[in-house]
Amino acid sequence: MKRLFPILSVITAALLAYALYEALVVAPTERTMGDVQRIFYYHVPSAWTAFLLFLVNLVASVTYLVRRNPKADALAVVCAEVGVVFCTIVLVTGPIWARPVWGIWWTWDVRLTTTLVLWLIYVSYLVLRRFSDSAQTPVLAAVLAIFGALDVPLVYFSIWFFRTQHPQPVIGGGGSLDPRMAHVLLINWLAFSCFAFLVCWSRYRLELMQREIEEAHAMESLAGTGVAAKASMPLGRSSR
Amino acid sequence: MNSVWAVTVATLVKDIRLEWRSKDALNSMLFFSLLVVVIFSFSFDPTAEESREIAGGLVWVAFLFSAVVALNQTWARELRNQVLDAYRVSPAPANSLFLAKAVGNFFLVSLLEAVMAPLFIVFYNLRSLGPSWELIPVALLGTWALVVNGTFFAAISLRTRSREIMLPLLLFPISIPAVQSMVEATRIILAGDGTARFWIILLLTYDVVFTTASLALFQTVLHAE
Amino acid sequence: MKYLFAAYIATWAIHGIYLGSLVQRFKRLRQQWKELGKK
Fold first, then answer.
1. pTM recorded for the entire structure
2. Are C11 and A206 in contact (CB < 8 Å)?
3. What is the residue extent of each domain of chain A?
4. In this structure, are residues B177 and A118 in contact, taking their beta carbons and an 8 Å threshold?
């Protein structure tokens, strides 16, 4: 297991470099937008990765509510955090792309706005985890994740309908894709997925380490007060 | 089912009676709502035409802020007197407590809205071009949307640092589709610009989804505190 | 196109900041672990 991480890191770094080369050099230049369109190769895979991570968070949250397995909770935190990172990238690259192409930074584009709301929901999730002083924070956070998931289709619908009433430019390019572009897109998606996996793995190890230390501290203070050190630990430690 | 309603009503009546005895909190909330309307009116001084377009947004944002003030005190009394522990061990269904609180908040926020709405009409010289009775389902469904999630998130925020800021922080993102629906529906009705049916149905859907979710998960949250 | 480079640089800057924060947290935890081990 220990040997695997460095090997995967090297492979991922190589993949990312290759994907970058493909995006900047190999991919054909888009007819109407020019070279700026290449942002697409970073913007879209980041979005897919973020959504996948949030989905895993949802599954981990529900699993935690049902089974109360602390590892599921650790996974939930990890995916939420890394998901927010990728989501931030989507929200930053989107307007950078929109500005030269359509002359505006923001438009209430369905996908971009839904991404914004998802970002807000998961940032509030992370804030809840940090600010909650209860030992049952994981339960509360899991419930919030479920509420967030229920909200997303509603968000999508409401913006979609709003847009049919108030038409505005579509960021992210609709329509069919040149197969060479699709190929570059997939390569970048593969590279970023591997990257996300590695980041999550690292963050997960960090999380487990943090929980062990917290338990050790707690055991110490229990032993210090003369209480039996074999006192059982509460499930689901809150994570900072 | 009978006992759920009985406990709900009993809790609701108790809450209203207690609130009525010390009207302080209520009065400050009313005054806060008034202030919000006045500040908004100073900040945005549109013509009659413009006001119909933006009134929806202004009114609902003002309602939202007043609602947060009201929602923040939802569980304050329970917290002060350790009532929640008693509730956890009692056989009373958790949902009764939630419903009672949510309905109580609904009445409270509706009262605030009833105070603010006429003021907005006055300050913005509002006159509805569309069927104004349609504003009633929008107001009812919209208020319930804010209150049901607000009451639920107030419970989640109970054991957090900065409890008062936690509630709007959790509530606002999740409420976005509901707020958009309320605002758009109001704008359409005031400006007489077509039918608000889609938004009203979306609001109804939102209310059903989140009322169900809150009822399903409140027990979990109550025991998690 | 400067926008293109801005986007790519922004992407890696954000990743860099996050990874940097992870490394910092790792270091701090390792420190705490050592302190615990000594006791």
1. 0.89
2. no
3. 4-224
4. no
